[in-house]
DNA sequence: TCTCATAAATGAACACGTTCATTTTTGTTG
DNA sequence: CAACAAAAATGAACGTGTTCATTTATGAGA
């Protein structure tokens, strides 16, 4: 994914891209991600196979475009829909909103996540291909923390934001495996996360727990999970 | 994977299976997992393409067989190589041994993990196809906990063992993305995990932290991540 | 309107994982 | 040894994601 949306494209190209993306998402919703072939997508969009590949480098790129759309929604919501409260409460809200958002897109997102966790994939959650989404969603969790009533100051807030971003990925991973109706198990897990955050929050003032957080954030940074821009924040060491 | 090893097979079949597996692992080590085709494997083993599929239902099955072998090694090591110490220390040792073990098999294991995290895959970490490895490695971490000098009693020990098993998967996931030489970042992360366990261990006696652990273990159980046998331990609810 | 470079679009071809109808080998029984 | 069922082995064929050489449209400048 070069740009958040098809910027730098001719109007005609943008329309075509949009048409193909719509066809893809519709088919995914109908028959599922795996069962939808690239040829199906092209036919449905009234385009040729090659054309689909002109705008989307791979099948998973459709899923990435979908997730990018959701991330943009999240960003808007975080800007003016996020109520006041503690870090724990705001994290829970953000996650519940995310779960609602994501609930009707299991198939494509599962395929995306599988690739996102593969370091070799062009769509690795840590690679360049996903820097856009990472920044967007990372920003959301930074806001969750920094706007909270019990927000830590500067440095720790950034660390906590990053860790919560990672936690959000872990919870989504859990959700993919959650077969309970309405994702009840996942919602309970989110509740547990809220409780745990509430219980541990005071301990963040103490050096041992503060160090744990720093190390965790440092570890994420070391493998390139930085939500603060594409090339900034190089690993601490070679 | 039906059986830990090719049990229930004719001697000839077992030999053939072994020959094909060896060819596969050798090629994976040489040119990498993705770059090795099933046709390559068959040719190298002096077999036909179809024959390879007679013994391995898919390409990833090779990786699963590899991991099964490693899990067996781990089990033996846990039986008589695991020194006395606290849960925190023993967990660190187990992870460091695992990292050494795994260090020369990045490619195939990365491919396996990508599938293992995909709920739809036959090789999902939570599915039947992987029950064998899960039991083996789960048993290792149960032993890590229950044999420790500061082991909690019965129920909590089982919970902690399961959570550490899950943590071990998370750390392996981290390792796949770790580009530092000798997996230095991962080793540091393991050190941090040891510190954190040491710091939090006493809190497990207190109700709030004990509840956190129970919930976490329950959450894992809810999605079928049970290391205590194939069909036992059904989800707590529909 | 004509020219022509650039963008858009095409679809045949490829590679690779996987399937399966068929053939060959093996071992057992009379 | 002959007959034959079961196991082992074969390789052609298929589906699908992806590539790319080629063709067709578009629009700006003369």
Overall mean pLDDT of chain A: 90
**CATH fold node name of the largest domain in chain A:** Tetracycline Repressor, domain 2
- β-strand amount of chain A: under 5%
Counting structural domains of chain A, the number is 2
User: What's the count of strands of chain A?
Assistant: 0
Helix content of chain A: 55-70%
Largest interface: A-B, 44 and 44 residues
Keywords (chains A, B): DNA-binding, Transcription, Transcription regulation
DNA-binding region (chains A, B): 37-56
GO molecular function (chains A, B): DNA-binding transcription factor activity; transcription cis-regulatory region binding
Domain HTH tetR-type (chains A, B): 14-74
Give an account of the 3D structure:
- Two copies of one chain form a homodimer.
- Chain A is mainly α.
- The first copy, chain A, folds into two domains: 11-55, Orthogonal Bundle (Arc Repressor Mutant, subunit A); 59-222, Tetracycline Repressor, domain 2 (Orthogonal Bundle).
- In chain A, 66% of the residues lie in helices and 0% in strands.
- Chain A has helices at residues 11-31, 38-44, 49-55, 59-80, 87-102, 106-116, 131-146, 154-177, 184-200, 207-222.
- Chain A is elongated and about 60 Å long.
- The relative contact order of chain A is 0.11.
- The model of chain A is unreliable at 229-238 (pLDDT under 50).
- Chain A binds a DNA duplex (30 and 30 nucleotides) through helix 1 and helix 3.
């Amino acid at each position: 994914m070069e740009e958040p949306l098809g910027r730098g494209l001719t109007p005609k190209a943008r329309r075509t891209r949009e048409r193909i993306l719509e066809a893809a998402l519709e088919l995914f919703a109908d028959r599922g991600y795996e069962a939808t072939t690239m040829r199906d997508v092209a036919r449905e969009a009234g385009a040729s196979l090659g054309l689909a590949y002109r705008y989307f480098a791979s099948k998973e790129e459709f899923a990435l475009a979908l997730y990018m759309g959701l991330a943009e929604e999240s960003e808007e919501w975080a800007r003016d829909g996020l109520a006041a409260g503690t870090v724990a409460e705001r994290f829970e809200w953000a996650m519940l909103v995310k779960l609602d958002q994501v609930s009707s897109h299991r198939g494509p997102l599962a395929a995306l996540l599988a690739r996102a966790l593969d370091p070799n994939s062009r769509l690795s959650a840590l690679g360049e291909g996903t820097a856009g989404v990472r920044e967007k969603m990372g920003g959301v969790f930074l806001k969750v923390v920094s706007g909270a009533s019990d927000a830590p100051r500067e440095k720790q807030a950034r660390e906590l934001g990053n860790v919560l971003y990672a936690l959000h990925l872990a919870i989504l991973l859990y959700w993919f495996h959650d077969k309970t109706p309405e994702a009840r198990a996942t919602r309970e897990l989110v509740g547990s996360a809220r409780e745990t955050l509430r219980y541990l929050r005071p301990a963040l003032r103490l050096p041992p727990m503060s160090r744990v957080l720093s190390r965790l954030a440092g570890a994420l940074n070391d493998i390139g999970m930085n939500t603060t821009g594409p090339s900034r924040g190089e690993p601490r060491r070679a």
